[in-house]
Backbone:
């Protein structure tokens, strides 16, 4: 079973890379962008076949390693 | 006094630290990250570098390596653990010291000397040191110290700020903040003050003909405090 997770920076955490990407987009003519925030995406392929159990395991992985909860949020977006 | 320096894959200041510790009288042992037990030590150092190629987040992979269980136990039982640069990043990832280190505010790798002011001398690291301000070297891409407002309050209430970036006279102001760290924080203690994480490298300032001697003052004082 494949579980997809996205990790994003929390709202009040400065994202200098997102800011620079925003500026670049602006320079390319995409001048209606309000803000860009950069994040991470993971696909975890697990032997677990029960979706609930698989999601719980990946949630634990997020808390223990994949995300740093001081600055990041995680969201499981897909399980199939 | 006995010390141990942990080497992770990608550490690159481990040998500099070994040289510095030995120069000021420590009997130092190098410890591989896959070892399980620490040798008997008065001080454990997590050195600078790019452990595990900075994969995922700086220090995150190293914080889960085998030896770290012993390092965490050692710290929790009152042992002195010092993390420099990448070592500081590893310490925040273990949770031994609060906060995180983000990408530098202006997205550049910074490699230069800075001045730091010692904020708290009531601990084993800075007790009795004559200097209030040290000139040390920094070399990092992720040294922008960040924590939540609640954490900041707790850190300040417990006097956990170890050093702040400042000018040569000790003024702690934004123009002397190289990387965007909250309140110019360059180093932080745990609550008990036996764990110290800091971005500047004292081991690079131990020879007046090569760099400067403010690192020497730090190490000389440290070994005297441990005796």
Residues:
């Amino acid at each position: 079973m494949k579980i997809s997770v996205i990790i994003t920076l929390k709202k009040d955490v400065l994202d200098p890379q997102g800011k620079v990407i925003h500026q670049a987009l602006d320079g390319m003519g995409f001048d209606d962008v309000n803000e860009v925030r950069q994040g991470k995406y993971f696909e975890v392929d697990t032997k677990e076949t029960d979706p609930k159990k698989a999601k719980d395991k990946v949630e634990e992985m997020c808390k223990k390693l994949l995300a740093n909860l001081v600055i990041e949020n995680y969201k499981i977006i897909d399980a199939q | 006094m006995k010390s141990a320096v942990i080497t992770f894959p990608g550490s690159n200041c481990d040998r500099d630290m070994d040289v510095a510790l030995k120069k000021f009288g420590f009997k130092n042992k190098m410890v591989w990250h896959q070892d399980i037990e620490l040798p008997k030590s008065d001080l454990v150092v997590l050195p600078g570098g790019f452990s595990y190629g900075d994969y995922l987040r700086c220090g995150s992979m190293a914080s889960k390596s085998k030896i770290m269980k012993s390092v965490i136990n050692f710290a929790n039982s009152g042992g002195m653990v010092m993390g420099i640069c990448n070592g500081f990043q590893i310490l925040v990832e273990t949770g031994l010291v609060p906060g995180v280190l983000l990408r530098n505010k202006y997205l550049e790798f910074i490699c230069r000397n800075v001045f730091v002011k010692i904020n708290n001398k009531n601990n084993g690291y800075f007790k009795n040191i004559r200097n209030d301000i040290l000139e040390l070297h920094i070399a990092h891409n992720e040294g922008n110290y960040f924590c939540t407002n609640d954490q900041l309050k707790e850190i300040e209430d417990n006097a956990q700020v170890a050093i702040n970036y400042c000018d040569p006279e000790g003024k702690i102001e934004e123009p002397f903040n190289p990387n965007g760290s909250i309140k110019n924080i360059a180093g932080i203690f745990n609550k008990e003050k036996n764990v110290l994480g800091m971005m500047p490298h004292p081991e690079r300032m131990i020879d007046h003909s090569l760099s400067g001697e403010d690192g020497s003052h730090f190490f000389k004082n440290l070994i005297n405090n441990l005796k």
Observations:
- Chain B touches chain A at residues 56-57, 60, 64, 93, 99-100, 102-107, 144, 146-148, 151, 180 (CB under 8 Å).
- The radius of gyration of chain B is 16 Å.
